[in-house]
Amino acid sequence: MDTTTKKTIILFSGDFDRAMAAFIIANGAAAMGDDVTMFFTFWGLNLLRKTEKVQTKDKKSTLQAMFGKMMPKGTGHLGLSKMNFAGAGAPMMKKVMKDAGAMSLEDLVASAQEQGVKFIACTLSMDILGFKEEELIDGLEFAGVASYLGEADEANVNLFI
Amino acid sequence: MDTTTKKTIILFSGDFDRAMAAFIIANGAAAMGDDVTMFFTFWGLNLLRKTEKVQTKDKKSTLQAMFGKMMPKGTGHLGLSKMNFAGAGAPMMKKVMKDAGAMSLEDLVASAQEQGVKFIACTLSMDILGFKEEELIDGLEFAGVASYLGEADEANVNLFI
Amino acid sequence: MDTTTKKTIILFSGDFDRAMAAFIIANGAAAMGDDVTMFFTFWGLNLLRKTEKVQTKDKKSTLQAMFGKMMPKGTGHLGLSKMNFAGAGAPMMKKVMKDAGAMSLEDLVASAQEQGVKFIACTLSMDILGFKEEELIDGLEFAGVASYLGEADEANVNLFI
Q: Which domains are present in chain A?
């Protein structure tokens, strides 16, 4: 059995429900004293986008601008992986979550940052999707797969979500 | 290399094909003498629902009742993550599985329980979706993310499916 | 902390974006000197299919032939897990990837093989879907879940994608 209690989570998905699962695990581990690193890649990067429009210094390609417009900004407009009902599923899920006294995704993200969970934004995905650092929330590190692997080598639980 | 051979699987998905993969791995590991814990959360809880209607002591909210009605009960009516063809995909997949002599999902679940695989139902997801203990199959433990993390800390393979 | 640096990846998904993530991690780990094993199962097997039609010795069932016809052959025609736009999403994603100077999926697969990443095709999935060895690309090993678990027991990072 390992003595380390470090955990890493790759958040590849931009689905509301999968993001919830990732942040519940991350917060739970952090609350138990574990070091936790979350690596946001592909659709998972959408969670880190600022909700307001940001004028970027470097221009985006037409396709990147289009992807950027069509994908959700931040945690507020994510869909469900199942039973999405053309977008109605996520608000319904949020309602039952609130009724059950569960933390909101926004609160879970804030709590993770407060508890010192390390957020790494995947630079390769950023290059591909045209996301600039100034478009993403504060408190991030920017790195690639080598950095993820270095973290994972030190961890005893590594999940891909 | 670890000396432990414990395995944990979070079954988040309620897709037939992903559930198949989870139970094939769980049964394989159990057959090799490993301790295996499966943690059922979100859509994965659908697999644990009794197929018959259960009168619950505590009332559900309207939304919870609606979610409950729209989601599959047990392993029999799960859809495929791909090529679902409005529900026709899963029966087709079951047919080719049967023709190939593969175990059915029902048999895999029963075999996992017989081999001592520990089934944990995520209590937070149950609270959110309104699932009560009496609506789920027998032989479950009920616990939250801290319990999952405790199990994962003792394991050398931890998958999120 | 483990001293081993072996990694395993189960590629269950046949989505272009998830396959990209799997191969970027596999190539990154191999470049850092790790042993890497990729286990292709269910839809992930589609990536290993030769693009040309292969006359198989053993007959397939009607359903297997149908599945075979409807599923993509090789890496060229995979869809996106999100924003697929009836097939238009993947070409758009490939365009932004190319513009960003990112490796193509085809190059990543070739690079993984050149770097000695072990490719295991799941024989149970092959039996179910009716895929024959001669229909899949060269350089594969053919094995089942016990073989995967043996590899995972020697690894310190095990992902399910």
A: 7-160 (3.40.1260.10)
